[in-house]
Amino acid sequence: MFRLQISVKHLAKEGETISAKTGQTLAGGKGANQAACGAKLLYPTYFVGPALGDECGVHLDYVRSVTDEQTGHAVVMLRGWPEKISDDELEVVRNAGVVLLQRDLPDSFNIQVAKDVKKVGVPVILDVGGMDTPIPNELLDSIDILSPNETELSRLTGMPTETFEQISQAVAKCHNLGVKQVIQSVIPASQVLDTTGAGDTFTAAFAVAMVEGKSHEECLRFATAAASLCVQVKGAIPSMPDQTSVMKLLESSI
Q1: Does residue 7 lie in a domain region?
Q2: Does some domain include residue 191?
Q3: Number of domains in the chain
Q4: Catalytic amino acids?
Q5: Staple 189 to which of 99, 108, 217, 228, CB 3.0 to 4.6 Å?
Q6: Which SUPFAM superfamilies does the entry mention (predicted)?
Q7: 98: helix, strand or coil
Q8: Residue 5: inside a domain, yes or no?
């Protein structure tokens, strides 16, 4: 997946064409971020989903690459998704140690995956980031761990999340909604340059620690250390630390 970062004066309306001031194409998206982080932390990670192939077979031998200037981008926003994930893709996630879901895809996709892997005992973590629509109860009932940031937790529960006490009360409401566990990332860092990807790093690092058999407290410490390193570097995937860096930070804080 790629994240297209563009700067525009306003969001395009249906049927409208607007020009962007600047644009960058970067590897990204919540799922790609979390997959990259898991791999950097030395756990075998698989990114499951369809990718559009080249239907025309155009030869690109004479396409010239430039590195010192930006080229053009055309962004077309369409509605519509494939109807469901394939059986072959489901077979991959059935054999996973843990499955991370994000709300960048329709809830119907996530419900299908969560229900399927629940039958074989694979734990499911749902990152709340993505669509801001209410999460269906059918999805909440099918996951093991919910991972929101403060803003997402507030939106989900309708409660303030500005203090630790308020966060605790909001988490308690999530339990009342049927969620088994909630991990809410409050990340300490001495030098914050860019928070992009910090939540994805936290969730992915927690998942890696969990499948490695660490205790709940150890998972939280590992995830917090990884995310605190992430915010000290600009970018999303480039800022995600490797396992050596995380372990070094943990050892220095003992």
Answers
A1: no
A2: yes
A3: 1
A4: 200
A5: 228
A6: Ribokinase-like
A7: coil
A8: no
